[in-house]
Design goal:
The complex is a heterodimer of chains A (202) and B (221).
Chain A (H helix, E strand, L loop, with lengths): L3 E11 L2 E12 L3 E5 L6 H9 L6 E8 L2 E3 L1 H8 E4 L11 H11 L4 H10 L15 H14 L4 E5 L7 H16 L3 E5 L9 E4 L1
Parallel strand pairs in A: 3-8, 3-9, 6-7, 7-8
Antiparallel strand pairs in A: 1-2, 1-4, 4-5
Helix pairs in contact in A: 3-4, 3-5, 4-5
Chain B lengths: L1 H16 L3 H20 L3 H20 L4 H10 L1 H6 L5 H30 L7 H25 L6 H12 L1 H15 L5 H30 L1
Helix pairs in contact in B: 1-6, 2-3, 2-6, 3-6, 3-7, 3-9, 6-7, 6-10, 7-8, 7-9, 7-10, 9-10
Classes of the chains: A alpha/beta (202), B mainly alpha (221).
C-alpha cells in the first residue's frame, strides 16, 4: 500500500526537449498536489512518468509503504490509478460493459462497480452505448474506476475539464474523502481543485 | 486467470462487432475466391490444380483485413495505457489480442476454406486437410498480424504498413501449408510440411507477443 510518493532529481526529455530537470518532491498520505503550467509544460508527461509509462532520463520515482520502499512496478500495478484525458472507453460497447471491464481490470467487482456508478449518477446510463454519452458523462464513467477499485494513488489528468458544476463539486467531495482515507492525489489541472492542495508549476 | 478471461471476452466482442467482424472477412474471402475462375479461366482441370493454393492466398489476404484496428484504436482512445498498467504483462495482453483476432476472423475463415477450395474444384476428400492447415495457418497469421499492427502504431496509413510488414513474414506458413496440401493431393509425403506449419505457428505464438509488447511500450511512452 502506497503511503508516500518520492520523486528525486527527476529529468525527462521528449526528443530534444527537456521538460523538467532536477525535479524533487515528496507527497505523503492524505496530501493532494496540483500540477499547473502552460500547455506543453509537461504536466501529462510527469503523470505518465509517475505511472511508469515514460522512462525518466535521470532521477528516480519511488513509492513507499508503511514498512519502507516498495518495488515500483508492483506498487504501480497494485495501487495506482491513472485517469488520462483520453477515457479508454470503447464507443461501440455499452457503458455498463465498459465500467464492468475497467473495474474488474483494476481489481474491483460487480458490486463495487454498481456502487461507483450509483455515486457518480451513472446508473441509468449503463444500458447506453458509450458513443451516446456526452463528454462529461464519459469522463464520469472513466472516473468510476477510481471508486470501483480502491487504490491509494490517483493520477488525474484534467479531471474537471468536461464536468458540470454539480459534478465538479461531487468529484471534489470524493477526492476529499479519498485524502481523508489516507489516499494521495496528483492532478494536472488548469482549474483550481475544490479542496486544499499544494501546487507545483512546471 | 479472471483478468485473462475478461480481456479475452472484451477483445473478442470488439473484434466480432467492430468493423464488420467475421462477416466482412468472409465476404472478402468469397469475393477473392470468385475472382480465380475469372482471372485464370473456368476450365475445371486448371482450377482444380490451383484450388488449394488459391484458397490459401485468399485466406492470407483476408487475415490482413481487420488488423489495423487491433492496436490503433486502443492507442487513440487511451485504452492502451489502461492495458499497459493492468494486472497482466503486455506480452500476455498481446497474446490474448492475437487469440481473440484468430477466434473472430481466423477461425471463421478456416471454416470457410474447405468450401472455397471445393468450389474451385478441389476434391471434397481434401476438405479435412484444408480445414486443418487453414486453422493452423490462420493462427500464425493472427500472431504475426498482431506484431505488424503493434509495429505500425502511431504511423499514418497504418493499414498499408501492416500489410507490407506482415506479408513477407507469412510466406513460410503459406509455403508449408500450401506445400502440404499439394503433396497430400498428389499422394506424396505431406507430414513434414504440415509439421513445419505447426512449428511456425507455435514459434509465432511464442515470439510475436514479446515484440508486440515492446512496440506497445514504445508507443505509449
Amino acid at each position: 500500500m502506497i503511503v508516500a510518493l518520492e520523486i528525486e532529481t527527476l529529468a525527462v526529455r521528449r526528443g530534444e526537449r527537456r521538460l523538467f530537470d532536477d525535479l524533487s518532491l515528496t507527497l505523503a498520505a492524505g496530501e493532494a498536489l496540483t500540477l499547473g503550467g502552460a500547455n506543453g509544460a509537461g504536466k501529462t508527461t510527469l503523470l505518465r512518468a509517475i505511472a511508469g509509462l515514460i522512462a525518466p532520463s535521470a532521477g528516480t520515482i519511488g513509492f513507499a509503504g508503511v514498512a519502507g520502499p516498495l518495488d515500483p512496478d508492483d506498487a504501480r500495478r497494485a495501487d495506482l490509478h491513472l485517469v488520462g484525458h483520453l477515457d479508454a472507453l470503447k464507443t461501440t460497447r455499452t457503458a455498463g460493459d465498459e465500467l464492468a471491464f475497467q473495474a474488474a481490470w483494476c481489481g474491483g467487482d460487480a458490486a463495487s462497480a454498481a456502487a461507483a456508478a450509483e455515486t457518480l449518477g451513472l446508473t441509468r446510463l449503463l444500458g447506453l452505448a458509450v458513443r451516446q454519452l456526452s463528454a462529461g458523462q464519459r469522463r464520469r464513467l472513466a472516473l468510476a474506476r477510481l471508486l470501483a477499485a480502491p487504490r491509494k494513488l490517483w493520477l488525474l489528468d484534467e479531471p474537471l475539464a468536461p464536468l458540470d458544476a454539480a459534478h465538479r463539486a461531487l468529484l471534489g467531495e470524493l477526492m476529499a474523502r479519498h485524502l481523508d482515507g489516507g489516499g494521495l492525489i496528483v492532478a494536472a489541472t488548469h482549474d483550481p481543485l475544490p479542496l486544499p492542495a499544494r501546487r507545483l508549476d512546471l | 486467470m479472471s483478468a485473462l478471461l475478461r480481456l479475452y471476452r472484451r477483445e473478442l466482442a470488439l473484434a466480432w462487432n467492430g468493423g464488420g467482424g467475421p462477416l466482412l472477412a468472409l465476404g472478402f474471402y468469397a469475393a477473392v475466391t470468385a475472382l480465380a475462375p475469372l482471372a485464370i479461366g473456368p476450365e475445371p482441370e486448371r482450377l482444380r490444380v490451383i484450388a488449394p493454393g488459391f484458397a490459401w492466398i485468399a485466406l492470407a489476404l483476408a487475415s490482413l483485413l481487420s488488423l489495423d484496428r487491433l492496436y490503433e484504436r486502443d492507442f487513440e482512445d487511451g485504452a492502451l495505457d489502461l492495458l499497459a498498467l493492468g494486472p497482466l504483462p503486455l506480452e500476455a495482453v498481446a497474446a490474448i489480442k492475437a487469440l481473440a483476432q484468430w477466434t473472430a476472423a481466423g477461425a471463421p475463415l478456416a471454416l470457410a476454406a474447405p468450401f472455397a477450395a471445393t468450389a474451385l474444384g478441389a476434391p471434397p476428400a481434401l476438405s479435412g486437410m484444408v480445414l486443418a492447415t487453414a486453422a493452423i495457418g490462420a493462427l500464425a497469421f493472427a500472431f504475426v498480424g498482431g506484431l505488424g499492427a503493434a509495429l505500425a502504431l502511431g504511423s499514418r496509413r497504418g493499414g498499408l504498413i501492416i500489410a507490407v510488414i506482415v506479408l513477407p513474414l507469412i510466406t513460410p506458413p503459406v509455403i508449408f501449408g500450401g506445400g502440404a496440401l499439394s503433396a497430400f493431393t498428389g499422394g506424396l509425403p505431406w507430414l513434414s510440411g504440415f509439421l513445419a506449419l505447426i512449428a511456425y505457428a507455435l514459434a509465432a505464438a511464442a515470439l510475436c507477443p514479446l515484440f508486440a509488447a515492446m512496440a506497445c511500450r514504445t508507443a505509449v511512452s
